[in-house]
From TrEMBL:
<dbReference type="InterPro" id="IPR043128">
    <property type="entry name" value="Rev_trsase/Diguanyl_cyclase"/>
</dbReference>
<dbReference type="InterPro" id="IPR043502">
    <property type="entry name" value="DNA/RNA_pol_sf"/>
</dbReference>
<feature type="domain" description="Reverse transcriptase">
    <location>
        <begin position="14"/>
        <end position="128"/>
    </location>
</feature>
<protein>
    <recommendedName>
        <fullName>Reverse transcriptase domain-containing protein</fullName>
    </recommendedName>
</protein>
<feature type="region of interest" description="Disordered">
    <location>
        <begin position="324"/>
        <end position="343"/>
    </location>
</feature>
<dbReference type="InterPro" id="IPR000477">
    <property type="entry name" value="RT_dom"/>
</dbReference>
<dbReference type="Pfam" id="PF00078">
    <property type="entry name" value="RVT_1"/>
</dbReference>
Amino acid sequence: MVVFGLLRQQQAEKERGVPRLVINYKPFNKVLKWIRYLIPIRQDLLKRITLAKVFSKFDMKSGFWQIQIHPADRYKTAFNVPFGQFQWNVMPLGLKNASSEFQKIMNDIFNQYQEFTIVYIDDVLGMFVGRKFSHPFKPHSYNYRDYTKAWYIIFWLQAYNHSWFVTFCKQAYKMHFPNWFQNWWMYFGLSEEIFPVKVQRSYHLFQQSIYSSPLSKTFRFALYFQIPWIFCWNFQLGPSGNFKALSNSLRIKWWKKFNYSHLEVNKIKDWFKANIHLQDMTRQEDEAFLLTKNAVMSTLAGASTQQEFNSVVNNVVVNLSDDNDDLPEDASPASVNDVDDLDYNPYEGLDINDPFLDKQPY
């Protein structure tokens, strides 16, 4: 073959790998009981990966050495070397049942993941089918913990130089707000402390005029008028001492580009006229009572004689009696304007067992 040029003589030494301990277990394997557990056929495994597009592979490090040998059987693996006699505590290479035993253990572990994993002795292959987000697929369902975890990751674990722009959409007042939104608003919601002076005046008018509700008035103000705000946070070092704690400092800011011309006091008044069902009717009744009271006191003060004074008092009593007769028998001034009797309720269906607090945690 050398003459025909098929081979040539080579003087260089063959490159070898890392030295390995090799023990002849052929005599021992003859007396070992055969474990009939088949190794997977490679052709069958290849058929399972035809649709997969993304793969992830890892190899068990010193796989057979992960299996312990029973202490009573360790003497059977004893061997001699020039520097002493040893026995294996773990399963060595060369035993005829080593591959089958290891394959059985690996299958027991990965059977629950067999839809996307292939196991061949000490090799594990993860296979995944690519999916385009434009393709329709059944959405997952989420619970309270999923939402809180999402907000925690977004608002607490993002880089500190990021900020978030938050606002309500125009139709948000018709939506149902879940219970977890309460905690969200208390931590990340809007606060009147950041309002400009003109907006604060409008908010005070809104606060005095809006009807009572379990929801925060600041929340309803931002909801009805789509008021945006900026949320951001930074690192904060705790007080000096032996141990300094590093924490997050939350902060909300007013969006300076926001056009709040629709929040002028006059426009807030016009808005309440157009949404009379949202007004606090109790406040209007108090104002009407004060006007009537002042008028009666002025009339009584103008009486010059006892007879004239008694006449004024009788007229006032008669007028008040006529006003009460106009009310239904089963109604009172408080129940006539009760919120439950409104034809329009922007928070219909909202769970009020877990209400918002009117005070802000800032």
